[in-house]
Amino acid sequence: MKQLFLCSYFAGVKELFRQYASEKQLGKQILFIPTAGNVEEYRGYIDEALQTFADLGFQVEILDISACDRETAQAKIFQSKLLYISGGNTFYLLQELKKKQLLSLIKEQIADGMVYVGESAGAIITAKDIDYNKLMDDKAVAKELNDTEALSEVDFYVLPHLGEEPFVESAQATLDTYSAQLNLLSLHNHQAVLVEGEEVKVLEEE
Fold first, then answer.
1. 190 is catalytic
2. Whole domain around residue 14: which residue ranges?
3. What is its EC number (predicted)?
């Protein structure tokens, strides 16, 4: 059964994840992919996510898929029971996943019981296609991305950071532009979406 924990801002849902990890008995090993942040000026959310996992007692292995070969990336993901993909530029992230041929492997691993944790860009790529996110992220940094088809693990499209700086305008523009044609699921920075099989629940940090 597929199990996904998707959020807008991981440090903002720390207690939700603590509870989730405890209920699911997830163990304490996590594979952490920060690659989406490589092309961003601000990367503080990656440090905050690392700190959040450390605070919760997790042992984190960092894997930058842009900096390793395909075999290494595939082997690490294949061995992982718990995978986290950070925020950053969604198009660059998808480009790097495709270059290393990781999308189908991640899908297989999710089907096989691996728990997937996605923050912002990491949550967006669980949709069928990420083209709708071009109002929030610059597509131009992903010059080798030929198509925007993504993991297709969920039938909705995560819209992170609604009402949150510095994304107030771009998130609202995305909502205004695509809400009539796509099943958008908008999140502010203290909400998470839990997907278990076909069941979808939105929770909020108190």
1. no
2. 1-202
3. 3.4.21.-
